[in-house]
Design goal:
By secondary structure, the chain is mainly beta. It contains no helices and 30 strands. The protein has strands at about 5-10, 25-30, 30-35, 40, 45-50, 50-55, 60, 65-70, 75, 80-85, 90-95, 100, 105-110, 110-115, 120-125, 130, 135-140, 145, 150-155, 160-165, 170, 175-180, 185, 205-210, 210-215, 220, 230, 235-240, 245-250, 255-260. Strands 2-5-8-11-14-17-20-23-26-28 form a ten-stranded parallel sheet, with no helix packed on it. Strands 10-13-16-19-22-25-27-29-30 form a nine-stranded mixed sheet, with no helix packed on it. It has an eight-stranded parallel sheet with strand order 3-6-9-12-15-18-21-24, with no helix packed on it. The protein starts with 6 loop residues before the first strand and ends in a 10-residue tail after the last strand. The model is unreliable at about 1-20 (pLDDT under 50).
Length: about 270
């Protein structure tokens, strides 16, 4: 697997910063590799043991923050990627054996990547664009996988958010488009129980099929999956799998409202 990316004004959780007014604190047996040029105003705080941050040579890293507390965590950032306008701790890892992978040509702008737990994975594939996007996972063995060519574009204070708990996954296949104020959650974050205390709302994986457009204000909940070439209409509440392809899904709860359709990122005549 090759990596080519760039970081500007972002936060990565492990270790960053190198040149010109950078602040670096690195713990025991840590490995930190970052380009010797195009780096300024960064903060890196790594505590624990055997943590590793690899940023490919020749990248630009400005105003970024990486915070890692734990053991054997890894951040890998490839070539020709960009990160801009991150706030403090926008990449933060608290735990052990967690991994963040950002592949070639991917751009992150004002994003927030947060892991609290062990053995979790965030993987962002080639040529993706994430702006005002949050990926948040707690507990152990969760996975967020975003395949190549996907775009997540929040706006103003309306972020696109992916939230995982209880060892679940949220997977986006290739060429998906996510608008602002979209919430995707694989867990309710708290328990609903019956009169005898038995859990009624277990978490469940979410899979978004190739070439899906999720329009603004939609909510995608645990257990949802869909077919390829789908539009999820604005304000939809998606609670159950809908396997149909080439459809528009909409409503509360969401259902198929139009068939034999497709979509394009560009305006066409």
């Amino acid at each position: 697997m090759s990596f080519r990316n760039v970081l500007l004004h972002n936060s990565l959780t492990e270790k960053i910063a190198y040149k010109q007014t950078n602040q670096i604190k690195i713990g025991e047996s840590a490995h930190f590799h970052m380009p010797e040029s195009k780096s300024r105003n960064n903060k890196v705080d790594i505590s624990g043991k055997n943590n590793e941050v690899n940023i490919s040579d020749g990248q630009t890293v400005h105003g970024s923050v990486i915070h890692i507390a734990g053991e054997s965590n890894k951040i890998q950032i490839g070539l020709n990627s960009n990160t801009y306008d991150f706030s403090d701790n926008s990449i933060r890892i608290l735990g052990n054996r967690n991994t963040i992978e950002i592949e070639d040509g991917t751009r992150l702008t004002s994003c927030n990547l947060f892991i609290c737990g062990d053995d979790n994975l965030i993987h962002i594939g080639k040529d993706c664009s994430l702006m005002l996007t949050g990926i948040h996972m707690e507990q152990n063995c969760n996975q967020a996988r975003i395949d190549e060519g996907c775009t997540f574009h929040g706006r103003d204070l309306s972020m696109a958010e992916l939230v995982m708990d209880e060892g679940t996954s949220i997977v986006f296949k290739k060429d998906c488009m996510v608008s602002n104020d979209v919430k995707i959650r694989s867990s309710d974050s708290h328990s609903i129980v019956d009169s005898e205390g038995h859990r009624l709302n277990p978490a469940a994986d979410i899979t978004i099929a190739e070439h899906t457009w999720i329009c603004f204000g939609s909510i995608i909940l645990k257990g949802f999956a869909n077919g390829k070439n789908t539009v999820i209409a604005a304000g939809s509440l998606c609670t159950k799998p809908i396997a149909d392809e080439h459809v528009i899904i909409g409503g509360n709860p969401a259902k198929v409202i139009k068939r034999e359709v497709d979509w394009d990122r560009k305006f066409v005549k």
